[in-house]
Each structure stands twice: as structure tokens, then as C-alpha cells.
Amino acid sequence: MGRDGRGVRAVSDSSIEITFMYRGVRCRERIALKPTATNLKRAEQHKAAIEHAIANGTFDYSVTFPGSPRAAKFAPEASRETVAGFLGRWLESKRKHVSSSTFDGYRKIVELRLVPALGPVMVVDLKRKAVKDWLDTLQISNKTLSNIQSCLRSALSDAMEEELIESNPLAGWTYARKGEVKDDDVDPFSPEEQQAILGALEGQGRNLVQFALWTGMRTSELVGLEWGDIDWLRGEVHVTRAITQAAKGKAEVTKTTSGRRSIKLLGPAMEALKVQKTFTYLANLEVFQNPRTGERWAGDGPIRKTLWVYALKKAGVRYRRPYQTRHTYASMMLSAGEHPMWVAQQMGHSDWTMIARVYGRWMPTADSLAGSKAEAIWTPTSTATSDEQVRKDRLTPSH
């Protein structure tokens, strides 16, 4: 006697279930009626009335189904929260649980991107198509598109935890423009460019840049580096903290566990440290200081504005942001044949798949002798003897 195709069906001898969509959620509710043909017809009419009220915006879940567990979820104070209101609460809840730089990134995305575009929309009414249509209008890089989606996806995941929405419309989905080159494409400095940049600098500025080129450390990690992090006996630098501009001088642990690492001090990096000792070693605090203030750098902004831009312009080198020193380190190591896993560990990546994906074109291709070492070690003796005999037979003239 069920009428499943119409969203009405008998579920017991004394009840009928109706199914309808409300605020993007498929809802199923039971009506205490014996599932006779007449009552099934009445249930269909009741369902139609509900859908009409939903379309007109007059449906009140708690009035229609006062005993339903879903009623609280669709209460006015929950169902009428806008994206702007929810994101404001969500952002504040993140302040104490993420790093300052991550929070500042979230704040900019929420205030400058999400709220102006999606703020008036009800959280429960937000659909993937609306997000996609909006993203499609933005003239920004794929990296920025990814950052926006990551922030919104995280917020909507928390909205699910609060039971404001049944599912996350961005779960398992990513929007990107095909064939577009990221604005952070790897663009390392050539050996000639490196020498020109270092030649345009002196003192602490030169030491900082040379150390960056030969350790691959992030700018925030260089700012947070202290003399106690240097292991002179092992020839290593221990990376445990970072100071971003958003943190306003406050040291924070690195973003990931793999980011806390030990980097081997290669010759040029060790040389830069030894020269730098004459400037800041006796203070026994930060390794690198702003020469203008005699204090720790406040972040990557001051380095870029007062040191980096000047050096590249004086050296006549095409401008790239300071982060390219990290890309330069990776490309140098891989071009020289260093193992990708070792490079990944030095740079603070948990595995080398990212290294292969981003820096693959700097990894040496196999030469004509590739595989010969494995062949010499693992080829069975009998096979080797047989092959040798074949070669001898070919050289022996036939009679």
C-alpha cells in the first residue's frame, strides 16, 4: 500500500512516513495514521501542504512536528543564521586554536571575500552551485581559490558539528581553473643571480640571504632562529619555531610536526653563520637582526621592504619574492642528485611526493648506466655465467 515514489509510505501498521526537502535537508517524519488507502491519500495532501508552506516561507517545523528531534535544529534562531553571522562566530572560535598567521589568513578571507559575497545567505541555504558561480567570477589564481575554499570548507564542517546543516556542500569538491599557472610558481635564482644578489649586500643582510639560500628555511623560521638552535658539533640547525608578521613578534611552533626538523649546515650556510657571530652572538638570542634597529626582524614584510627589494634592484635581478630562496635551495639540491627524501626532510615535508610534484623538473633523469649497480649486485651467478658463455660463443668462429 506504500507510495514510495510520491514520498509517502507505510512504515508500520499504525504509521505513515512522509519525505520532503527542507533547507537542503531530506526530512522524514511519521504520522500516526493507519496506512489505509484513504489515509495514504491524506498523507499525500499533508505533504503537499508542507511543501507549499516551504515554498512560501511560512513553514514552521516545530509547529507542524512538535515532537520531532529535528524541530530544534530548524528552530528560527538556528535556521535563520546568516553566513556572515556564523562566520563571525566561527572566526572568533578559531582565534585561540590556530597560529596567528593562520588566523590572520582566515580573517582576511572571511572579511574581504566570503562575507561580501555570501554574507546575507542563510547557512542552511548555501549550496555548492552558489559557491561555484561566485568563484567563477573571481579573477584570482588557483592558489587563492584553493585558500578560499579551504577556509569555507573548514567553517562548514564546524557548522555540521553544531548541527546547523546536515552535510557540508563543499566536502569532496574543489573548484579550480584548468591550465592556469599558480602565482607562486617555482622560479629559482640561477648561480649568477645568487652571486649578484649577495654582491649587492653586506653585513647582516648578506649573511641572512646566504643562509636562506643554503638551508631552504622559510622567512618566518629565519626570523625566529636563535643561537641556541645551532648545534656546532653536529653541524646542524634545529628548527622549532617561527615568527610571522601576524604574530607581532611572538614565537610560535612550526605549523606541522615535520616542520620541526634538523637541517644539515652545508658549507656556505656555516660560513654565513660564522660571519654573523660577530654581530649578534654575544647577545645569545636571535641570530639575525634588522641592521637599522638592532632588534629581531618583525616579520617577512620589513625584510622584503627594507632589504630584499633594494638588493634585487641593485643587483639588476628580476624581482621574485623572498620565498624563492627556498625554491632555489630545493632546485640546487635536486639538480646535484641529492635524494628527494633527504631534501624533503631538510625542508620540513612529511614525504617526498610534494618534492617530486613541485620540483620534478630539477630531478636528474636516468643516464645510460642507470640500473647497472643493481644488476651487478642482484643478478644470479648462473644467469651471469650463462650470459658470459653466450658472448663467448658469439665471438668463437664456426668451423
From TrEMBL:
- Give GO terms: molecular function aspect only: DNA binding
Q: Which PROSITE patterns match?
A: CB, TYR_RECOMBINASE
User: Compositionally biased, Basic and acidic residues: which spans?
Assistant: 388-399
Task: List each coiled-coil range.
Answer: none
Signal peptide (residue range): none
Give the residue ranges for region: Disordered.
380-399
**Which segments constitute the Core-binding (CB) domain?**
81-160
Q: Which Pfam families match?
A: Arm-DNA-bind_2 (PF12167), Phage_int_SAM_3 (PF14659), Phage_integrase (PF00589)
Q: Which GO terms describe its biological process?
A: DNA integration; DNA recombination
Residue intervals of the Tyr recombinase domain? 184-374
Q: Origin, by domain of life?
A: Bacteria
**Record field: transmembrane:** none
Is-annotated flag, keyword rRNA processing? no
Q: Determine if Membrane is one of this entry's keywords.
A: no
Query: Could you tell me the keywords of this UniProt record?
Result: DNA integration, DNA recombination, DNA-binding
Which family is annotated? Answer: Belongs to the 'phage' integrase family.
Q: What name does the UniProt record give this protein?
A: Integrase
At the highest ranks, the source species' classification is: Bacteria, Pseudomonadati, Pseudomonadota, Gammaproteobacteria, Pseudomonadales
